[in-house]
Design a protein that fits this description.
Blueprint lengths: L2 H25 L1 H23 L31 H35 L2 H15 L3 H12 L3 H27 L3 H8 L4 H37 L11 H8 L8 H28 L8
Amino acid sequence: MPQAAVDAAPMRGALARLAHLMDILWRRADIVIGGGLLTAMVLLALVTPYVIAGDPRALSPGSRLLAPSAEHWFGTDQLGRDLFTRVLYGARISLFVGFSVAFLSSLIGTFIGMLSASSRRLDAIVMRVMDGVMSIPAILLAIALMAVTGGSVLNVIVAVTIVEVPRVARLIRGIVLSLREQPYVEAAVAAGTSRPRIVVRHLLPGVVAPLIVQATFVWAIAMILEAGLSFIGAGTPPTTPSWGNILADGKALWQIRPTLIFFPAVFLSVTLLAVNMLGDGLRDLLDPRQGPSL
């Protein structure tokens, strides 16, 4: 075989795999739409400080409750602050909280779930603690934690992470318990493979796909909890613009100026829809029972 053909073989294989992936994604409209919307929202949040010259906390008493116009695209609030600027800066806080909680809860929950599945004695103790945390409604537990720690973005992340870790831990525990019964894992144990090697080579790859899907749903739940906490004054400080704070500021005046509620609610709803669509699409794509997969 000519050397040129041999050198081109890996490239053709990579292009074929890329074409296969694009074909699968093209047929998954929920992944394309959800991922596109979420990417657009993240990019918008990242570039906001560089393209928006205004200060989201700048007060202008002479420009209170203005209607949307060319100067103020979304109007102004009761303190004269530009609502468009505040909504865009609020996206940074809400998305950051959602991503941070999804990452931390996935990391901690995976460790706890795998640790629990490794020992029956540990399982009995750890899972009862997780059950106890899950028995408390998420929003009530988050409010209680915020009442103890005080309002800040970091404390919101910590509180919501504590709320979400048990759900991830139980998911990972169930998957690991199922994987341990698989023939290839039993063969590795019989061959004398060390436990860390079994975890890295046989158990972790099996939990990656469900964990990614669960992380998207945790992201959405974290954004809802952050908005709810900020709305009732138990989340991010009032001086820090977030979608929950903006909704809280406008709730008393929504009959006079509905845009105070409408615009932040639309941004929050679209972002939540995007995250949930992406999660649903990934669940169907990564589940071998749902048809073609990667």
